[in-house]
Structure formats: C-alpha cells, structure tokens
Amino acid sequence: MSDQPHVLIVGAGAIGSFYGAILKRAGCRVSVVLRSDYDAVKGHGFRFESVLGELSWMPDHIYRDDDVPQETPDYVLLCVKVLPGVDRAALVRPWLGDETVIVLIENGLDIERELAVAFPTHALISCLAFIAVSRIGPGQIHHQAYGQLVMGNFPTGFDAHCQQLAGRLRDGGIEVNETEAVVGERWRKCVWNAPFNPLSVLADGADTLTILNAPGGEALVRAMMQEVMAVAKADGYPLPAELVDKNIAGTRAMGAYKNSMALDYLHGRPIELDAILGNAVAIAERLAVPVPHLNTVLTALRIRQQ
Amino acid sequence: MSDQPHVLIVGAGAIGSFYGAILKRAGCRVSVVLRSDYDAVKGHGFRFESVLGELSWMPDHIYRDDDVPQETPDYVLLCVKVLPGVDRAALVRPWLGDETVIVLIENGLDIERELAVAFPTHALISCLAFIAVSRIGPGQIHHQAYGQLVMGNFPTGFDAHCQQLAGRLRDGGIEVNETEAVVGERWRKCVWNAPFNPLSVLADGADTLTILNAPGGEALVRAMMQEVMAVAKADGYPLPAELVDKNIAGTRAMGAYKNSMALDYLHGRPIELDAILGNAVAIAERLAVPVPHLNTVLTALRIRQQ
Fold first, then answer.
1. Comparing C-alpha atoms, which of A48, A43, A99, A52 is closest to residue A76?
2. How far apart are CA A137 and CA A306, in angstroms?
3. Do B300 and A300 make contact, defined as CB atoms within 8 angstroms?
4. Which of A96, A284, B35, B155 has CB 3.0 to 4.6 Å from A100, enough for a Cys bridge?
C-alpha cells in the first residue's frame, strides 16, 4: 500500500467530487473520470460552497471515459447512481490494476453483488453516505450538511484497505463509522429509505412530514418499515425492534425534508427505484416474506415509469 | 304516482343532463338545478352530440340553488360527484315533497347511507351508470358510448317507483338492469374500480393496459381485486371467484382506456377517492379484513392530496 494512495473517482458528481475534495485535503493524489463537466473542471477544477469551509480542488488527472489511465489507482471510487441500463462494471473496468481496491459510495440495497461478481479477485469496500450535497452547475457543488460514512468490506469485514481509506477520510475531516457487516447497515438504511423515498415520488415530491401527517400516512410508513425489517431478518440481518419508533421520532424531529429520490423526481432525473426498493422486494420474494405494502408502492411506481 | 312524472335533476352535469334527455324523450316533465351553466341552458337548453342521435332538450324549469320550486317533483335525481365537503343531503332537501323519491345516479360504494339517514321516510333508488359522457362546454355534452343503468332500491328491493322510472328510461332508449341487491352490484363494480381508478391517478393518468402491462401490474390489480372481494364477502355480498379473471380479460379486450378518475385527475378536477376506494377500506377496517394493497394505494393518494 502506498503511503500517498492514488484515488480515481468514476462518476465525479456531487458526492464523488465531495469525497475527492476530502481525500485531496488529506494528501491523497485524486483523479477523476468526467463526461459533461470535463471542460469546466479542466478549466477551474471543482468549486465548492461548503459548511466545512474551502473545499475547491483541482484533480491530478482529469480523464474522459475512453482515455488511457496515466497511473494505476490504488482505489477506484464508484459514485454513479444505480440505475437500470448503467453497467457499473463496464465503467470501472478500464481503470483497474490488479491490486486496485473498488470502493462504492452509493445508495441502496444489494448494489455490491454486480461488482463482486464482475471482479471477484479485487477487494471491495462498500460505503453508505449520509450527506446533503448537490451539483449547482458544471464543476460547481453545494455541500449543505453532514458527510459521515458507514464503511466496511463487502460482504463482510473491515480490512487494511478500509483502515487506510477511513484514516485518510478522517484526516480530511469526515466521520467514518466502521462496520464488519455493511449489508446489515444497508438494511438499516433501507428501513428508512424504502417508505419515504418512493412515497415522496408517488405523492409528487411530498416531504417527510407531509407523508407522516396525511391520514394513514404514519401507519403506512410503519407497515413498510416492519416489512423491510422482516425481510432483513430473513436475510440474516435482524434489526432492533425499536428502530421503527426511532426512525419515526427522528424524522419528525428533523422537520420537513425532501429526500434524494424526491429531488431527483422533481428535477426530472431518473430515480434509483431498484436500489432503494426493488431489490428489497426481490429478496423478499426469494425468501417468501410477504411485503404487500412495499410491493404495492413499487408496482405503482413501475406503472408510472412505463 | 302521476302518469307523466315530474323529474328534477340536482347536479345536471354530463350524466344528469344525459338521463334528463332520455326521460324528456320518454315524455316526462324534467327540470334542473344549475349553477355555472344556468345562463347557457336558459338560453339554448342542453346541446348534445350523441351516439343515440338527437338528444338536445330544454328543461321545463331551470332553477338556481336558492330558488323556490314551482312544482313538487315525483323524483329527484342526484347526479353530483361524491366528494368530501359536498353535503348531498343539503343539495336535495329544498326540492323534496313528502312523497318525492330520491334517485342517486352516482359512482362508488356506500354512497347511499348519507341520504338514507337524512331522509328516512323517502323511498331511495340507487343507480350505477355505465356510460361515457362528458361536458364539453356550458350546457354542451358529448355522449361517446353506452348508457345502461343498474337500478334497485337502497338497501334492497325493486319497488313500484323503480318499475316506473325504469320503464320511462327504457322508453327513452336506455337499458336498465333491475337488481334486488344494489349494494352487491356496487361491490361488483368496486372490484374493477378500486384498482384501476386509483392506480391510474398514482401513475399520472396511465390507461388500463399500461397498468396491466407494467412489471407486477396485473398481479397488483388482481391482489387488489381479491381484497375487495374478501371485504364484499365479509359485508354479506359474496361475488363469484371467476370475477377477477373476467375483469382482467374484459379489460384487456376493451383496449387502452382512461377511466373517469384518471380523466378527473388529468383535468385538475377533484377525484372521488372515498366513494371509489376509501369507503371500501373503511368497511374492511370495521370488519377486520386485511387489505394492505388497497390501503397502501389509498394512503399514497391521501398523501398526495395534502
């Protein structure tokens, strides 16, 4: 492991360029692969407005999709949205050396398997990001709040690569929570995401409090959360029973909030329906756990997507 | 019973003025209560384009809400949409004589009780309309297809008033199917309406085939239909098991179709959510029949309505 690891970010949108900024600040060499923002970033790097202070940065290399890498990265960070038709293995493949570690900073459940199957000999790190950050123009990012990561190897463990990467992220000012069971953490986040994200889209972008305060709204959210907990348990990841109460109380305490899927929907961008809900329902079907509430919401959204 | 009954239509929109035209053609005296279209109808009556030929007609009396009736009607036909905040008993009350029969030509389930409670001494006739008709301008109606009614007394029976009214409607060219159990017929229609109408709204106005052909769409429609059948049975109205298969086959045979709730939604008009779905779910809760699919769709729409 090199002392000053070289990190390459594939999909350097808001989230990718944010963690790139953190790693750059921590002394890593950080390069990016870009499409639409290539010219802007080539010209002035990434410009940031951030609650963490000055985060603007210039990547060491700025590549296009079909470029040849000028050095082999120690870590490839994959930060693209998980959407049907996006072949994430193909996006990563050209940039990998034999020892390159693949790092996912992406939303959703059961999103690692595709990469684990495509690259069985590569170490795979899976991260959940708790962050509010958005792209406001070419190469221009607004970081509103948070930034902590939950990190672990897929499917289990927390190896020396995790140690190194977590150390650098902490050097850059980010809280990293280590886990030996990242899949369980994804289930935990799914308990919140599976109801609130899709319901907000079905309700034309409704915020969390509108969902909870509608007649029957909180009861539906709780029923969906209980279904996710039942699938998680059947999948080998039992979660504490009080998680539902805690999620409801925490959501109410946070105030009206539009989640990322609501924002994608309102801006006309594709939504990560499978990563957030469809994969959970597919696992439920495989394990024969009844999830009528989850399935109804999923199907209603699939009808709308036709 | 007078030989040439006087019918007064409260809520003479597309459906009310259509059946008014039919009864007028059959020799009845027919008056209307109007709001927005008062001046237009006063000037030129109702103008029709219809597959049944010339149906344009001039009412015998044209009233506003606060007028005093110039003769007591034998039948009051109530044809308004069933919406929260619309006090249908108050709409009917000023026009009733002691012997006036109240006739509902309205969509939905459990929509009679409000009138039966308000006017316990009046005969009450409940009709389901199978018709495609729409208002295209003030006093201007386009009748695209169909027109048959299912008719019976609420809660049960088929009395002499039904006989007379059905006879006049048939004289005017309309098929009337008599039933002694109109509530069962409303449950039967609910089996189709409860999935297709609300799902079309959740899916932004999707037609029937889009709903059936989406991944998981037909399975969801079937699950919702089965839930309605279970509630109907618990309510004392068992329906034949093959109704679900027949509904699916019939819907596919009919081709892509946008139902009335989808059209209301697409035109920005309020939707009859309680009459079509909410009342069925309320009865399910009272009878402790689990309806998770119906409840999820209902709640998602209620969140959207906030």
1. A99
2. 30
3. yes
4. A96
Q: In a mutagenesis test of the A interface, which of B207, B222, B273, B299 is the best target, namely the one with the most A β-carbons within 10 Å?
A: B299
HSE, CB side, 13 Å, CA atoms: give it for residue A143. Answer: 28
* Residues whose CB falls within 8 Å of the CB of residue B50, separated by 6 or more in sequence, listed in order: B18, B21, B141, B142, B143
Tens of pLDDT, residue by residue over B125-159, are 999 999 989 999 999 999 988 999 999 999 999 99
User: What are A71-80's pLDDT values in tens digits?
Assistant: 999 999 999 9
Q: Which CATH class is domain A184-305?
A: mainly alpha
Torsional sign, CA A265, A270, A274, A275: negative
Taking 80 as the threshold, does the pLDDT of residue A2 lie above it?
no
Predicted confidence at residue B93, as pLDDT, reads 97
Q: Which segments of B54-159 does DSSP mark as H helices, in order?
A: 88-92, 113-118
- B-chain CB neighbours of A214 within 8 Å are 299, 302-303, 305-306
Architecture of the domain spanning B6-180: 3-Layer(aba) Sandwich (3.40)
Under 8 Å between Cβ of A301 and A273: yes
A–B CB contacts, 8 A cutoff, strictly below: 93
The mean pLDDT of chain A is 96
What ipTM was reported for this prediction? Answer: 0.89
Residue A199 in contact with partner chain B when CB distance is under 8 A: yes
A240 min Cα distance to partner chain B (Å)? 24
B6-180 and B184-305: identical CATH topology: no
Residues A214, B303: C-beta atoms closer than 8 Å: yes
Q: Is B117 exposed, middle or buried (0-12, 13-18, 19+ CB in 10 A)?
A: exposed
Q: Which residues of A touch B223 (CB under 8 A)?
A: 292, 296
- Shortest distance between the Cα of A161 and any Cα of chain B, in A, equals 40
With CA atoms as reference, the chain B residue closest to A217 would be: B299
pLDDT at B74 over 90: yes
| Partner A contacted by B89 (CB < 8 A) | no
Domain ranges within chain A, ordered by starting residue: 6-180, 184-305
Give bridge partners of residue B124 from the DSSP assignment. B102
B202 touches chain A (CB under 8 A): yes
